[in-house]
Amino acid sequence: MTEYGPRPVDRRLPTEEARDLLTLVRELAEREIRPTAAEEEDAGHFPRATFTLLSEAGLLSLPYDEEFGGGGQPYEVYLQVLEELAAARLTVGLGVSVHTLACHALAGYGSKEQRAEHLPDMLGGGLLGAYCLSEPSSGSDAASLTTRATREGDVWTLEGTKAWTTHGGVADFYTVLARTGGSGAHGITAFLVPADAEGLSAAAPERKMGMKGSPTAQLHFDAVLVPDSRRLGDEGQGFAIALSALDSGRLGIAACAIGVAQAALDEALAYTAERQQFGRPIADFQGLRFMLADMATQIEAGRALYLTAARLRDAGLPFSKEAAMAKLFCTDTAMRVTTDAVQLLGGYGYTLDFPAERFMREAKVLQIVEGTNQIQRMVIARHLAGPEKR
Hints:
This protein is α+β, with helices and mostly antiparallel strands. The protein is 51% helix and 14% strand. The chain contains 10 helices and 10 strands. The strands form 3 sheets. Strands 1-4-5-8 form a 4-stranded mixed beta sheet. Strands 2-3-7-6 form a 4-stranded antiparallel beta sheet, with no helix packed on it. Strands 9-10 form a two-stranded antiparallel sheet. A hairpin with a 2-residue loop joins strand 9 (276-277) and strand 10. The radius of gyration is 21 Å and the shape is globular.
């Protein structure tokens, strides 16, 4: 009888250091994350201790410069770390991606003084970040946000509500986009707001179909005072900062999606190798073998797509179109693969006794966050055919 079951991902890594890093991550994930993932997700437990451990291990700082405590790793490597973490538990992989997104504005647009003051703790000091762009009435149309920052002297006063904030209520700092000028994209500025700022509060977390261990909440800014020394970039530059962050963040979501899909495929392979029907493993039946082959092919294609975009980013080349393509394809792949995994497990796939149903519920949100897949198609089409005619 043929031997079936999960096989290690065959990764093409640029250095031996990167290979050692991925080995460390896999071992950490198998020891510290995967064993309790199902139980903690079911209980809605946020794994703060896990993020502290990742910070101590240098895994919250990988794509940032070593000068301020970063890991100095290329995105090509960082994204494969995310994939491994998401395969063990999406709450953790996505949480690392969100934290990295929250550090982007300061790392890329902050002054040297700001970076020296804040980045070391943000990257390796046990802090956890969140990103505040969406609002109750402005999601895909982020340029229409209404949270306002009004300046008086060297202090800004923030008023408004942010929505769909991952780590809302548990983060230590928030990168906040607020309106400082007129309407549209050019009147938005970025700020670094500490979680203990007076007047900042979080609503009760949203009740979600998946990722129950990752709190998603509205944030209320009620006359929150922020010194101008915490303004990131120039006044009115915030929307450009946000777009550049989202291009990179979309690659993080793509990598997480492939991690979830890989975990679902591994579960399906293990189950179909063990499950016997008509005197042999169901993995011997051609119809199921073809499903497994399609799942594996889609995962490999998605992995290649996000790595291509990452290598463009690492080379300093434009990658916005490729990031949108990767986010679109990888998250659609995760939805297809997890759905097929549930089907391959039959009735067991629909029960809480196996993780396939959790993977399927988690995959759905990846088609929505950091720009819905409909928005990704709009982004790709603009690169191909130019802006829409108004």
